[in-house]
Amino acid sequence: xxxxxxxxPDVMSMLTVSGSLSVREKIAxxxxxxxxxxxxxxxxxxxxxxxxPADGVPVEFSLDIDxxxxxxxxxxxxxxxxxxxxxxxxxxxxxxxxxxxxxRIGD
Length: 107
Known about the structure:
This protein has strands at 14-23, 34-40, 46-53, 59-66, 75-82, 85-88, 93-94, 99-105. The chain is mainly β. It has a single domain (16-105), classed as Immunoglobulin-like. Strands 1, 2, 3, 4, 5, 6, 7 and 8 form an 8-stranded mixed β-sheet that branches. InterPro entries: Pilotin (IPR039366).
């Protein structure tokens, strides 16, 4: 008797982009803030995104991306929002930067 085993597709290989969000201002962050982080390619295509609680800084993030989706350099876009205000990246920053410094947006 022959046994047929199913064909399994190649195991997906993942790439992890991780780092931290920081602000240069010395302020106390109230609880309840939210940080949004997106990893995009050179064309601006979002490959991974997450929203994290942000009760203070730094905010650590880690996103996994299917390596098959990565065809160019990767960048990070981030925004942190709480009742005091909002801070974000004014431009896309290289994903291998490590610490992403956010700039206050508006008042």
